[in-house]
Amino acid sequence: MKRLTEPKIICEVPGPKSQELLKLRAENVPIGVSGVVPTFIQRGEGALFEDVDGNVFLDFAGGLGVLNIGYSHPEVVEAVKQQCDKYFHSSINIVLYEQYVRLAEKLNQLVPGDFDKKTMFVNSGAEANENAIKIARKFTKRTEIIAFTGAFHGRTLMTMTLTSKVKPYKFGFGPFAPGVHRMLFPYCYRCPYGLKIESCEFHCAKQFEDFFLEQVAPEDIAAFILEPVQGEGGFVIPPDEFIVELRRVCDKYGILLIADEIQTGYCRTGKMFATQYWADKGVYADIVTSAKSMGAGLPISAVTARAEIIGAAQVGGIGGTYCGNPLASTAALKVIEVMEREFFAEKGQHIGKACMKRLKEMKEKHDIIGDIRGLGAMIAIELVKDRETKESAKDETNKIIAECYKNGLVILSAGVRGNVIRFLMPLVVTDKQLEIGLDILEKAIEMVNSELLALT
Which of 147, 192, 237, 394 is deepest in the core (most CB within 10 A)? Predict the structure, then answer.
């Protein structure tokens, strides 16, 4: 079978086979199960996939951050095949198996923190966050949880409550879970306090005591939960000073700190976990959740916590039928082995530097680019109609994404305003493929930017 090396559009997209499948989808699948790209994959390799009509796309979406190791990594495929020959399933709640224990041991070693840790597995990022909240409440014997504006933590009742963005994730699905409160997240480009980072003196880090006076008493709070870099919220990175102060406040009042590493984990930010950047400042989370690229596409997620915290759950209180199933655990062990051996964290740093250099050049030429930000290969550009007013360019963002798709590049939006383009390309992307993708993106930005200028 011919290798996939670069994008190639051989017919109008979606092609005839995809169009037929789109009709079948419309008849049988609810519209609530969204699909950004109107084409059907046939096979994937590395950072590319071929659709059923033979078009080849460069994937800068990576299955929503699941494919850091790329499509169809041969070692992961082989490891899962070998496990399939032995057995598919044995619920860890009934009959034990070695992969679960080995994977837990590995994560306890990798997650930052020089203290005893233990790990449990579930099936999705939302389930991991659900269990983190359960465990935090059980250990602290407190009920209240603090989440942040711009957050995304999942679509279950609790995690949908924790999530900030209303449409489409929360609209019409209430009432929501009790005991969740929300603080302003430090979004420096759009400071919620109207300040400039050059002179703000990190005002955002000084709001905790006022929040405790006006919203919820610290003695009632079980945990803060936040993403080290907000994902769906627009790849927003909080200042180090905010994180340091958050940890100080947690320690002062006996509040737990939960880091949602669902999207940031597994080398995306240039380290195995983004909380390693916190560790450089002496900050450690009490509970870390991870998922997405952990299993290379097989459903698995983890809750890793201080041993005494996760140990508070009674026998049978956490877990589930498929949690940490043998196939997914096998895949995850191989993913981590490959990532460590082949220096995937360094790959993330390399991709980040290459992208940031190119994007800064684009920003100099195209006024529609208001902000560029990122950590490792978790990169975003925020598009605006006017750099002074920062009016969001949501429609223009959608046009750019559509134009990229027509030319063989799959890329996603993000942000509560829908005006952020995010990069989640597999970390196995080659320098040439990266250049091709950025060329396609820049042409699309140039076209839409020219249309915007013509209207002003």
Answer: 147
Contacts of 181 (CB under 8 A, 6+ apart): 144, 145, 146, 147, 215, 216
Rounded Cα distance between 160 and 290, Å, is: 17
Which secondary structure element, helix H or strand E, spans residue 303, and what is its range? Answer: strand 301-306
132-136, 275-279, 448-452: segment of lowest average pLDDT: 448-452
| pTM of the complete model | 0.96
- Determine the Cα–Cα distance for residues 319 and 158; give it in Å rounded to an integer: 17
Domains of the chain by start residue, with CATH = 16-72+344-455 (3.90.1150.10), 76-341 (3.40.640.10)
Confidence of residue 209 (pLDDT cuts 50, 70, 90): very high
Residue 46 to residue 65: CA distance in whole angstroms: 14
Give tens-digit pLDDT for 123-143: 999 999 999 999 999 999 999
The residue type found at 118 is K
What is the rounded CA–CA span in Å between residue 92 and residue 117? 19
Q: d(Cα 100, Cα 105) in Å, to the nearest integer?
A: 9
Q: Give bridge partners of residue 305 from the DSSP assignment.
A: 118, 287
C-alpha closest to that of 435 among 4, 2, 7: 7
- The pLDDT tens digits for 393-432 are 999 999 999 999 999 999 999 999 999 999 999 999 999 9
pLDDT > 70: percent of the chain: 100
Confidence of residue 235 (pLDDT cuts 50, 70, 90): very high
CA distance 39 to 52: 8
- Residue 7 has a pLDDT of 96
Q: By CB neighbour count within 10 A (0-12 exposed, 13-18 middle, 19+ buried), where does 314 fall?
A: exposed
Going by C-alpha positions, the residue among 262, 226, 329 that lies closest to residue 66 is 262
Tokens encoding 395: 């429609």
CB 180 within 8 A of CB 170: no
Cα–Cα distance for residue pair 181/234, rounded to 1 Å = 21
3-state SS assignment for residue 24: helix
Please, which residues bridge with residue 57 across strands? 49
CA distance 106 to 217: 37
DSSP tag of 47: T
CB 315 within 8 A of CB 112: no
Tell me which H or E stretch contains 102.
helix 98-110
